[in-house]
Amino acid sequence: MEPLLSLRTFLSDVEKIGELRDVRGADWDLEIGAIAELSYRSPEPKALLFSEVPGYRTGRVLTGSTGSARRLGLTLRLGADHTDESLVDALRGKPSAWAAAAADFPVLPVTDAPLLANQVAGDINLLDFPVPRWHQHDGGRFIGTGCLVVTSDPETGVHNGGCYRMEVQDDGRSVTIAAVPGKHGAQHIAAWFAREGRAPVTVSFGHDPLLLALGGTEVPLGVSELAYAGAVAGERVPVIIAPDTGLPIPAGSELAIEGWLRPGYTREEGPFGEWTGYYSGSRRADLAMEIVRLYHRDDPILLGAPPGRPPHDYSYMRTVMKSAMIHDELVATGVPGIVKAWAHEAGGGRLFVGVAIEQRYAGHARQVGHLAAQLPAAAYMNRYVVVVDADIDPADLDQLIWAISTRTDPAEDVEIQRRTRGSRLDPMLPDGATPYNSRAVIDACRPWERLRSFPRVAESDPAYLAAVRERWGAVLD
């Protein structure tokens, strides 16, 4: 029986709904990444399982794990029968409930797992597995794209699971971990450095994509992503306790390592094609991991989640999760009239957010826009927030742009927030600059004082259109 959060269980479920494709013989050097990119841009992207990689007797790579409503619904334990809209609706309210329930699902230490079939200490080489070079101008081969990097708070022992890019170094004997400054994992590492001069780390490179989804989402500080995953699944997550570091590794993992980070122990890493759609700057030093032990199943599967110009591997997943979380957080502020929020995939699920409201009072639209721009779910690397009336679907870019084009006066309806939370991945940020950004709040609602007199929209009544379609559908379809 497969452990909870086994990638193989997930793949079996995806195969049953007809959304898994086997790809045999693709090369690790660019070809896997290019095939995956073509799939993301197709009308119905599938999950792709790459096997028989030239030059490798063992090892497989999965891409596109969360790239449809049905696959993401399976991942989040919300069922496979979903559209984009129904999935966001089903997800609403769940993140806060899962976070509240996480304390009831502490990890479950076990002593046996398929992961323990092969253990290596000492002579470790990550390039024994088909680690892809994803993009043409990447600085190396990145094994950490869909990974889960586990750290801990040295004071409380609470675990954090983050998804960070990891480049293979030293001919496979080490990896860099590009932990995002300010994120919980980076805070843990800094605290361990100050306390003991080194930081323990474990990394899983293949697992149920639920851990990918949670590792790249703003789970509240002090809540373990593994406990949160248990709340989502309704069961405690079984883990192997790594003997050297004492940190957990999901028992359902395909391939994992444990080891240490030390101040000053760095390697040059990057550039890498990032979720903004650009390569992330020049090659620079980042913390490198001293790997002390490696574990893997027979013929392990690496969970690939390479970013790039949207749509990319996890841009759909981020759009759905952020849209639901931003909506929930806006409602939780107590501001009335929130109809819908949408974090657009074209902006990587972060950079461009639309919110529809039913206007209740003067200043309502501006209030919602400024709040949305700084919510915990939206504050990191946000660039534009557009607030529209309830007759506009904020998930429809054509409608959103029409509202901006016809219901705004740029001199009056665009406000700027300055020195807000940016990222060193921002292509507009000069090398070495402090990672601030600015963001625009665009009030694309009809002016409050002109709601009654604003020109009527030139379109038929929806009920009348439905009746006409029923009668004349043969000439319309």
Q: Care to describe what's here?
A:
With 477 residues, the chain is an alpha+beta fold. It has two domains: 7-303, Pnp Oxidase, Chain A (Roll), CATH 2.30.110; 315-450, UbiD C-terminal domain-like (3-Layer(aba) Sandwich), CATH 3.40.1670.10. Helices cover 27% and strands 24% of the residues. It contains 13 helices and 21 strands. It has helices at 7-16, 31-40, 69-75, 84-91, 94-101, 184-196, 210-215, 225-233, 315-332, 364-374, 397-407, 410-413, 462-476; strands spanning 20-24, 47-51, 60-63, 108-109, 118-120, 142-144, 148-152, 159-162, 166-169, 174-176, 199-204, 238-241, 248-250, 255-269, 284-296, 301-303, 338-343, 352-357, 384-389, 414-421, 436-443. Strands 5, 6, 7, 8, 9, 10, 11, 14 and 15 form a nine-stranded antiparallel β-sheet that branches. Strands 17-18-19-21-20 form a five-stranded mixed β-sheet, with helices on both faces. Helix 4 (84-91) packs across helix 9. The longest helix has 18 residues, at 315-332. It is globular. The model has no long low-confidence stretch (mean pLDDT 95).
Alpha-carbon distance between the two ends:
49 Å
- The number of domains is 2
Would you identify the CATH H-level superfamily of the largest domain? Electron Transport, Fmn-binding Protein, Chain A
Shape: globular
Radius of gyration: 23 Å
Structural class by sheet pairing and helices: alpha+beta
Percent of residues in beta strands: 15-25%
